[in-house]
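UvrD-like helicase family protein (Luteococcus japonicus), 452 aa
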Amino acid sequence: MTGSLPRAGVVVAPAGYGKTHRVSEIIRSGLRVLVLTHTHVAVNNARRRQGVPHGVKLETIDAFARRLCLCFPTLSGVPTETTDWRVFEEGATAVLHSPAVATALAASYDQVVVDEFQDCSKKQVALLHALAALLPTLALGDPLQSLFDLLDPTQAATWEAKTSAWVDQEELTYPWRWHDQPDRGAWISRTRTALLEGSPVELDDPSTRVHRVSQQHGAYLSRLMRGPGSWAVIAGDAKNPNLPSTLAKTHPWNRLTVLEVGQPKELVDFTDAWESGRRTLAVLQLIKQCASNTTKVPGFTSCHANAATNKPSRSNAPLAALANQLVEQASPEAALALIDIVLDHPDTHLYRPQLLSRAQRALCIAQTEQTPLLAALARVDNQLRHMGNNPGNGPVVGSVLRMKGLEFDHVIIVQPERLDSPEEIYVALTRAKQTCTIVVKEGQAVPWLASP
């Protein structure tokens, strides 16, 4: 990736500084625009929020790469049966060096817009550099929100490496998200500067405060989550996303709902156990991982114990009859009924509805279409990649990675000492529109916070 790109521009777009408005202006400019982003959810959100005028194409970077490879298989050198997105990215980069393809793209689009540029991998950056050499291209992103680089450093590229060849560079400077809270907006700007400089964060804004507790547990959350508006709890860093489900399970009175990330391991274990014939164990174990107080459901404990050895239960509880039916045959209908019995019990609290809903939808498809559960789940996952998961109306809890791109009226950050990168800290602090509470255990040092 050498040489300058005279028709390429980069906009540094801090969180809440009007990036969406900038993209919307370009989409509605009347130009033929190709808008590239990272997820199908982002594509669909843009379609719902802004509409898609004639001549505008919205798709993911990987979908664009795959489309080029399938249209020009000889130029790309990529076999049509390939499923590896990185191979598609390499092949598409090769396709873009063809003069014929360059002519076709110039006849189709006036401009390219790339969203969330900071999340691009090395191969995606190479692809976009090749595209920017052909068409006027504007990339919008923020180096302080590049969380995905933390997950896979081998594919990461520094912001400087991504943007050094892009001639025109600017930065959005006004925090529009907090236009009705100028003091908080100014504090967000100062905090950003401090993080970029490696300095501790000063809590000199009344809307952001530290709440000290004697123990890091969830009992205090119900006292903090009072008042109208949307509430979110950020728990867990980008590399260790298990804390949210633990917090929601062990403190059910907070009524927290977990926001899931990617393909949870629990769902993989569920399908593996089901396909291997341990169907009762698959269903009961998944319920136990998604709902609290399951032991209060009559028959649940004995059925779960027997399911470990795939033996029928002798309990007379209605749940046991369904569990025994699953031992004998693969019955999605019985599995769905078993789930309903547990969830209908007044003492159970479903704290991972997104996870359990995926399993239920897959079971419904398996039942109505007589398809294997694994294939049914693949269909559900494909639908969710395009539709996304609605956070719901109640208080939610998730890792900082899952909260990226979302905003809430009030945010509570627990175990802030786990956030050990400027990117994680910045994303966590900028999710709140009105108030942010940082919960710190007495005596616990938080290196990124300035001393009071």
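Residues 8-174 form a domain with the Rossmann fold fold (CATH 3.40.50.300). The chain has a mean pLDDT of 89. ok done for today
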